[in-house]
Amino acid sequence: MGVEERKREIRETIWRLMEERGIARFPLPVRGRIPNFIGAEKAAERLRCLPEYERANVIFCNPDSPQRPVREFALRDGKVLVIATPRLRKGFLVIEAGSVPPNRVNEASTISGAFKYGRTVDIPRLNVDLFVTGVVAVSPDGAKLGKGHGYGDLEYVILRTAGALGEEVPVVATAHDVQVVEGIPFETHDVPVDIIVTPTRVIRTNTSYPKPNRILWNKLTKEAIEKMPILKKLRIISMSNPNQGTNKQFL
Q1: Is the dihedral of CA 114, 120, 125, 129 positive or negative?
Q2: Residues 88/153, Cβ–Cβ less than 8 Å
């Protein structure tokens, strides 16, 4: 079985199990999504207790439903929150610490609320201290699977390429325990996870997988680049500065 077939099989298994066991929750069906799950709030609470979270001033978080509690805690705790807009069509959203009224924090943690209370930028003029991602499946050695479109990995590598994110920044995934599986294939463009947080436990992967530090342009279609303005800008810079690994033009 090839790598892509194996990844597809794992995704389909997780989506099916979560619905069969009543773990999945709105939005349904979970197939094709980063699945929301019962216990997402407990996982977020565990993440909130990590020293990496406590030290972080700026937190990146993916825009999917199961990580909404993470976004809410970050705002309540006075963190600066960076969120990728859906499919990166409008770049990133930045919500400054303390800019949201206390009675509107729950709303601001949703995507529609983030657009209301945040500002859109190509690249945040910030140094991200913690990178939180959603998964379909994740393994104790740090390999993970998203929906299969590559947006989570792309969000990470864009921030790395633009100089807003360092290699030392922890990558954390919140997930249900059933999403933790063995034997996920890992490829060079994949972003490994340092810490897995579930409703019941914290797994420090001590991963040996390298974190990608550049955009693999041959993995992207011309259509994908055209639909993401930030990619178009980074592509121009990469063509004019082929030996430049980190770009500060956006900062």
Answers
A1: positive
A2: no
- As a three-state string, the secondary structure of the chain is CCHHHHHHHHHHHHHHHHHHCCCECCCCCCCCCCCCECCHHHHHHHHHCCHHHHHCCEEEECCCHHHHHHHHHHHHCCCEEEEECHHHCCCEEEECCCCCCHHHHHHHCCHHHHHHHCEEECCCCCCCCEEEECCCEECCCCCEECCCCCHHHHHHHHHHHCCCCCCCCCEEEECCHHHECCCCCCCCCCCCCCEEECCCCEEECCCCCCCCCCCCHHHCCHHHHHHCHHHHHHHHHHHHCCCCCCCCCCC
Percent of the chain exceeding pLDDT 70 equals 90
**Residue 161, exposed/middle/buried by CB under 10 A (0-12, 13-18, 19+)?**
buried
What is the domain partition of the chain in residue ranges?
3-204
Q: Which residues contact 244 (CB under 8 A, 6 or more apart)?
A: 237, 238
Interacting residues of 205 by C-beta distance below 8 A, sequence separation 6+: 140, 141, 142, 192, 193, 194, 195, 196
Question: What sign for the dihedral angle of Cα 113, 117, 123, 128?
Answer: negative
Q: How far apart are CA 20 and CA 205, in angstroms?
A: 28
Q: For 92-102, what is the mean pLDDT?
A: 91
Per CATH, the homologous superfamily of domain 3-204 is NagB/RpiA/CoA transferase-like (3.40.50.10420)
Confidence of residue 170 (pLDDT cuts 50, 70, 90): very high
